[in-house]
Amino acid sequence: MEITGFFAAVIIGLIVGALGRLVVPGKQNIPIWLTLLIGVVAALIGTFLAAALGVAETPGIDWIEIFLQIGLAAVGVALVAGVRGRRP
């Protein structure tokens, strides 16, 4: 991954985090900064996963990579919200 790809993943990660939060049903009791952080991590992992699967470079918009990132963000938000929700 080049440096421009890294910065693109971070910027897309901010959007992906918000979309991941929207995908998870119910109310999540986590701060927005944590949601965005989860999105950035999900975007980076999704980018590496898409490259490993060979779908990172497609003509046009990389829809498979974006769906992987949003799915990972949704799972991350659900996990963190579940862990933080059980704290007294």
Keyword list:
88 residues, mainly alpha, 3 helices, 0% strand
Question: Which helices and strands appear, and what pairs or packs with what?
Answer:
Blueprint lengths: L2 H21 L8 H22 L9 H23 L3
Helix pairs in contact: 1-2, 1-3, 2-3
Give a structural overview:
This protein is elongated. 30% of the residues are buried. The mean pLDDT is 81. By secondary structure, it is mainly alpha-helical. It is built from three helices and no strands.
Question: Which parts are unreliable, with pLDDT below 50 for 5 consecutive residues or more?
Answer: none
> Taking Cα atoms only, what radius of gyration do you get, to the nearest Å?
13 Å
Number of strands: 0
Helical amount among residues, as a percent range? over 70%
Element-level helix/strand string: HHH
How much β-strand is present in the residues?
A: under 5%
Mean pLDDT figure: 81
Beginning-to-end CA distance, first to last residue: 41 Å
Structural class: mainly alpha
- List the domain count as a whole number: 1
Shape: elongated
Largest sheet: none
**Helix count, DSSP H or I runs of 4 or more residues:** 3
